[in-house]
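Quick log. Single chain, no ligands specified.
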Amino acid sequence: MAFQPDLLQGRTALITGGGTGIGRGIALALAGHGCNVAILGRRAEPLEAAAEEIRSRGVLAAGIPADVRDPAAVAEAVGGAAALAGRLDILVNNAAGNFLCLAEDLSPNGFGAVVDIDLKGSFHAAKAALPHLRKQGGAVLNISATLHYLGTAAQLHVSAAKAGVDALTRVLAVEWGRYGIRVNGIAPGPIADTEGVRRLLVGAAKDRAAQRTPLRRLGAMRDVCDAALYLCSDAASFVTGVTLVVDGGLWLASSGMVETWAESLEQAGS
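-> predicted structure:
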């Protein structure tokens, strides 16, 4: 364990998209370090399964069905999270949508759906959490991506949304610092044990992505979770407005990443 087990003792977090994938991983990591955790998502079944696993860490947990595209539903969910233990200290905006599609084939609805979930959903949750977070200060953590650092084929929709998320991170860090609220982000690269990698890095593209990563492997859930624990804790008490890239250096090897996505797209279409 890289951090003390009581790192977040007595705090409460809300994680959107917390029933599966990276959101679930972060939820379990926070819970394993003493944090009460509410998770939000559209499907009740994975939420309840994840909430039960969180409770097994000895903390309070709640699975709250809601759609981040609905501001009223998000506000109600945030209230429910704050009621879990009488406070809200951490918001993790993780809910996201993605699929492979070239811009020429991308429908307005497809583009809008990803922006609505990734970017507008993050705004809805942050805005609803503000009255709770400003009571004692706290942390907002936005899960971003590295796709928009480059011209990543078949990822226009999510690249636009995540670029907006990064802008949201920086502006809220400036505006909300006076309330003692830190706002940061994590931009994961391909994380091997996620549904996103299973769907989007197809066939041999997954192995080539690992080979082209300077650290010569894909990311693991723990890599993202350790970054989240740091940014959500007092260890990062003077860090705000930062989007921490957790990708083993892959985006810096930019031509390799572009080629990897192009190959994945070819595999998916074959």
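The chain has nine helices and seven strands.
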